[in-house]
Design goal:
about 325 residues, 9-stranded mixed sheet, about 25% strand, 5-stranded mixed sheet, 14 strands, 2 domains, alpha+beta, about 25% helix, Jelly Rolls
Length: about 325
């Protein structure tokens, strides 16, 4: 039997128009109750018909990407059991047509899965944010919308920090600290359902014979059920499983990074290390473990203090120009 799961800590009364700085540099997750309850989008979403009509006012004619799956998928946007493909297909359709399809199947006891994930609001719903937005100050997040029926998105992690606001329907959120990587049985890094590596555990029916250490992951899990207007703050690289519980669900999320835009994503460094370091002989891997510790993970002012400033090159403090030079050098090496 899985262990009891702790609740995500809750905060109330957060000013949505001016988010506190400590929430923009998060190290722990929070449920932010009622954060988006005042949005017209949230108020309209109390009725699926009214919510869909509100979104249609802003929807552009450009088609969105829609993931669809048969009823037996039970809402799971994931691999096939053999991992040789996906249990869903992707189509292109106008957002208005997707909303109509959701309404059409709203009372269907076994509907097909319909899911629009991570669609940029300013591109596909221009004007929506004018009255439905959060105050990030100087931070400029990417705002996206997620629309569907009863869906289950496998546990995954994202590099940016994330505030996800439920504006229609209910969602069950299960979070895990980054350190639970080993216990979540993560699938392929380079062939993924939606761009991020995901847990292969079916949270609705965990197979503890096949994934025995998932029980340990659940001992560290934190869970919450979010209603319309509630939000969850997910710090960078926290694993999160998202389950939409109703026949019409809409979520708006914001991604931002606590680093300059010109910094590369660490995932590229991970893939490059797999290519160039992982399969070295053990003794050589240990040498490179020390090199990474010295130059990356424990780097400080003393790392290059013995080198004249004008000669420190890649060891100097990183800025946009130096990052561009390093990227060009890496590309030259990769294209040899």
């Amino acid at each position: 039997m899985p262990p009891a799961v702790d609740a995500i800590e809750e905060l109330h009364g957060i000013d949505a128009a001016a988010l506190p700085q400590e929430l923009l540099q998060p190290t722990r997750p929070y449920v932010l109750r009622g954060l988006a309850a005042h949005w017209p989008l949230t108020l309209a979403g109390a009725s699926a018909q009214a919510g869909a009509a509100y979104l249609k006012q802003f929807a552009s004619d450009a088609p969105v990407t829609v993931s669809v799956a048969p009823p037996q998928a039970d809402g799971r946007i994931d691999y096939r059991p053999d991992l040789l493909g996906f249990g869903f297909a992707q189509q292109k359709a106008p957002l208005a047509a997707v909303l109509d399809a959701l309404l059409h199947h709203a009372d269907d006891p076994a509907p097909p899965t319909i899911y629009v994930g991570s669609t940029t609001i300013d591109t596909w719903l221009p004007g929506l944010r004018e009255r439905n937005d959060l105050g990030f100050g100087a931070v400029q997040p990417l705002a996206s919308i997620w629309i569907g029926n009863r869906t289950r998105i496998p546990a995954h992690q994202d590099v940016p920090d994330n505030i996800a606001c439920v504006v229609a329907g209910r969602r069950r959120v299960t979070l895990f600290p980054p350190g639970q990587l080993r216990n979540l049985y993560i699938g392929p890094l380079d062939r993924t359902p939606a761009g991020q590596a995901v847990s292969l555990v079916d949270f609705a029916a965990p197979d503890y014979d096949r994934h025995p250490d998932f029980a340990e992951a659940m001992r560290h899990a934190r869970v919450a059920e979010l209603g319309p207007g509630d939000a969850v703050l997910i710090p960078s690289m926290w694993w999160h499983h998202m389950q939409a519980l109703d026949s019409y669900n809409v979520l708006v999320n914001y991604w931002w990074r606590q680093s300059p835009r010109w910094m590369d994503t660490p995932m590229n460094a991970l893939l490059h290390a797999i290519m160039s370091v992982r399969d070295l002989p053990p003794a050589q891997r240990e040498i490179w473990r020390e090199a990474f510790r010295h130059y990356v993970f424990d780097a400080d002012a003393q790392t290059s203090a013995h080198i004249p400033e004008t000669m420190r090159g890649a060891l100097a403090p990183l800025d946009e120009a130096r990052a561009r030079e390093l990227r060009a050098r890496l590309l030259q090496g990769l294209n040899r």
